[in-house]
């Protein structure tokens, strides 16, 4: 994998907060979730296992994601990520604590509610989920020109 492109993707993803998550068990579904990214391009979101998208993931862990800045004007250079991945619920409280810290940094404001203590005490049902990418299409007309994008397959 081209490390320069990987670094640019991580940089872009860290500048964004919202991800559209597409799932499909019996019928297609989309959800908008706050996310965080690590340096290996794994995406993390927090959601209730009872939600429609997490119920779908239980049946079919293959997902599609889209990340783009919705404030971009039609005439601006396009930048965004489309990806396919495999989603799993993160296991273990220590790992969850580390990932929640990263998630709160990316999407601050819910630290008092979304935390390991509230998960353990069943105050909230939310859990951390990880999307491991298998395919990423990175659009970036500023880097790659007018029709520019790069594809990474894992």
From TrEMBL:
SUPFAM superfamilies tied to this protein: FMN-binding split barrel (SSF50475)
Family annotation (InterPro entries): Pyridox_Oxase_N, Split_barrel_FMN-bd
**What are the residue boundaries of the Pyridoxamine 5'-phosphate oxidase N-terminal domain, all occurrences included?**
5-94
The name under which this protein is listed is Pyridoxamine 5'-phosphate oxidase N-terminal domain-containing protein
């Amino acid at each position: 994998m081209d490390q320069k492109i990987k670094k640019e993707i991580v940089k872009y993803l860290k500048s964004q907060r919202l991800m559209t998550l597409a799932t499909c068990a019996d019928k297609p579904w989309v959800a908008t979730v706050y996310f965080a990214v690590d340096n290996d391009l794994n995406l993390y979101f927090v959601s209730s296992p009872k939600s429609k998208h997490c119920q779908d993931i239980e049946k079919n862990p293959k997902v599609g994601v889209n990340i783009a800045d919705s404030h971009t004007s039609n005439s601006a250079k396009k930048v965004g990520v489309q990806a396919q991945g495999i989603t799993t619920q993160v296991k273990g409280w220590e790992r969850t604590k580390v990932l929640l810290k990263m998630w709160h940094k990316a999407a601050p404001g819910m630290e008092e509610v979304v935390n390991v203590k509230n998960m353990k005490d069943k105050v909230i049902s939310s859990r951390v989920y990880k999307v491991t990418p298998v395919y990423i299409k990175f659009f970036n007309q500023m880097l790659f020109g007018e029709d520019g994008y790069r594809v990474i397959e894992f």
